[in-house]
Amino acid sequence: MKKIISLLSAIIMMAACLTACGSSSNASAMTSVTTSEPVELVVFAAASMTETLTEIGSMYTAVHPEVSLIFNFDSSGTLKTQIQEGAVCDLFISAGQKQMNELDITADAAVNTEGLNFVLEGSRINLLENKIVLVVPEANPADINRFDDMAAGLEAGSILMAIGNSDVPVGQYTQKILTFYSLDEAVLAAAGVLSYGTNVKEVTTQVSEGTVDCGVVYATDAFSAGLTVVEEATTDMCGKAIYPAALMNTTAHTNEAQAFLNFLQTSEAMAIFEKVGFQAAP
Amino acid sequence: MDWYPLFNSLRIAAISGLIVFFTGIFAAYYVAKLPRLLKGVLDVVLTLPLVLPPTVIGFFLILMLGPNHPVGSWFLSVFNIRLVMTWYSGIFAAVVVSFPLMYRTARGAFESFDETLAFSGQTLGLPNTYIFWRIRMPVCRQGILAGAVLAFARALGEYGATSMIAGYIPGRTATISTTVYQLWRTDNETLAFQWVLVNLVISAIVLLAVNMLEKKKTERWSIR
After folding, report:
1. Which pLDDT belongs to residue B216?
2. Which residues of A touch B67 (CB under 8 A)?
3. Based on the number of CB atoms within 10 Å of its own CB, is A241 exposed (0-12), middle (13-18) or buried (19 or more)?
4. A212 contacts chain B (CB < 8 A)
5. How far is CA B211 from each of CA A70, A217, B149, rounded to the nearest angstrom?
6. Would you call B185 and A167 a contact, using CB atoms and an 8 Å cutoff?
7. Fewest CB atoms less than 10 Å from the CB: which of A134, A230, B46, B64?
8. Residue B101: closest CA among B46, B56, B63
9. Nearest-CA distance from B164 to chain A in Å?
10. What tens digit of pLDDT does each residue of B161-202 get?
11. Which residues of chain A lie closer than 8 angstroms to B181, CB-CB?
């Protein structure tokens, strides 16, 4: 009896493996790029674009039913690492120039220290601009109304602030704001006043759950999560938050990916972006 | 190197290990005496954290202990104590995830206990607490110890629920597991690897100590 069961399960497992191998080899045989063939586009995008891109994606697939969009939303730093480690990606939209530069062979070697070459030449554009804002939980328990209050509170050690870590673009912008106020991040971290999130949505959640006294996120995330924005950062504080987009040179669907990227720049798509606070990149 | 994560992890694991040791044993003892239906239901509820993903557990913990939610806001308003984003938030997470391990192992140990020993004690007029601590526990020693070690190890390695409920605040709520993740994410791989080695060493020491304890006992009780 035992022998029969083990033999049966072995056969079933082999069959499953063969089917899996079979189907994947079939997929790689379909490298044709005519628009009538069903195409799966994998888009890696910054977490701050979750709501907007999902909506735009449904709009796009309604008009182009042969394209199915697969989104991977996470911090741009994580996405860059995933691409570097060989993840399948056709289009990458980063929340910061740094992450895109690290994948772009034509970028400054001081930034692209590992000499990575993933950006498809000529496809890179600046897509969107976002604003950095200071947000507080609903009741604003620590009574923070401006960036100055935030800086004072951090220095005094009286508040807890959620920030993205140094791998996250919004964290990098926050670091610039801290430098603008002459605050040393390492000193603040040692004092236990900073709570690090691994992407902007973690920071947003910590603020909306009220587990921290304030946080620095994008205006779009504040809007989507219904957070109270107390102040918007000026360009002197942290520069402009520009979102670059580019095709990856490992893509098997250059035309479809380019078509989607072009769609993202149309007025229809921009309307959705602008609804939550994005602007077209200058 | 900032050694706070090590201190914090050990502290959380030790405290939750202690809590879980007593609650797990008592739960195992009393649940075994309940009527069948109640026993079945309680058994499922108490073992649930073992099969739930830690992130699900973290989510439920936030739903209860977060400042915008019932238990958390009550504590804030009455005692002005915040239950999340502090070092002791990690204890809640560790207790929930390691409780089933202690509970199940203790249950198994108690069920294989020869009840005639307890009966003999009762015929001799010994109080129940004496029978429990001086007869039942020593006989079930192996199982209880195994459960305690598993619970401690699980509490030491807890990541998912801890990162959600305690976050990562260097010098306050950082544990070894959350530190390794953050260091890896910020491209600090050498330091992350150092912490991995630290964790391996601690785990090895704990297991070695337990093995040595077990050996001593079996040697003492074996009939020569």
Report:
1. 59
2. 137, 209-211
3. buried
4. yes
5. 50, 50, 10
6. yes
7. B64
8. B46
9. 9
10. 999 999 888 888 899 999 999 888 887 889 999 999 999 999
11. 198
Mean pLDDT, consecutive 10-residue stretches, chain A (282 aa), reads 78 68 46 63 92 93 92 90 89 92 88 87 92 92 90 91 91 93 91 90 91 92 91 89 93 92 93 90 85
How is A146-197 classified by DSSP, letter by letter?
A: SHHHHHHHHHHT---EEEE-TTSHHHHHHHHHHHHTT--HHHHHHHT-EEEE
Shortest Cα distance from B196 to chain A (angstroms)? 20
| pLDDT exceeds 90 at position B111 | no
Query: Chain A residues with CB inside 8 Å of B167's CB?
Result: 162, 195-197, 206, 211
The answer to whether the Cβ–Cβ distance between A211 and B187 falls below 8 Å is: no
Reported pTM: 0.76
The residue assigned the tokens 């040791």 is B21
Domain boundaries, chain A: 36-129+242-280, 132-232
3-state secondary structure of A117: coil
Residue B117 near residue B135 (C-beta atoms within 8 A): yes
pLDDT in tens, B58-85: 999 999 998 888 888 888 888 888 888 8
Name every residue whose Cβ is closer than 8 Å to that of residue A16 and which is 6 or more positions away in sequence. none
The answer to whether the Cβ–Cβ distance between A165 and B182 falls below 8 Å is yes
Q: Is B167 helix (H, G, I), strand (E, B) or coil?
A: coil
| ipTM of the prediction | 0.71
The domain covering A36-129+242-280 belongs, at the CATH homologous superfamily level, to Periplasmic binding protein-like II (3.40.190.10)
Domains parsed from chain B with CATH numbers:
4-174 (1.10.3720.10)
- Specify the CATH superfamily of domain A132-232: Periplasmic binding protein-like II (3.40.190.10)
Residues facing A269 on adjacent strands: none
Record: contact B168-A212, CB cut-off 8 A: no
Confidence class for position B223, pLDDT limits 50, 70, 90: low
Q: Are B79 and A223 in contact (CB under 8 A)?
A: no
In this predicted structure, what is the pLDDT of residue A153?
92
Name which of A191, A195, A211 is nearest B168 (Cβ-Cβ). A195
Q: CA-to-CA distance for A2 and A57, rounded, in angstroms?
A: 51
Q: Mind telling me how many Å the CA of B184 is from chain A's nearest CA?
A: 10
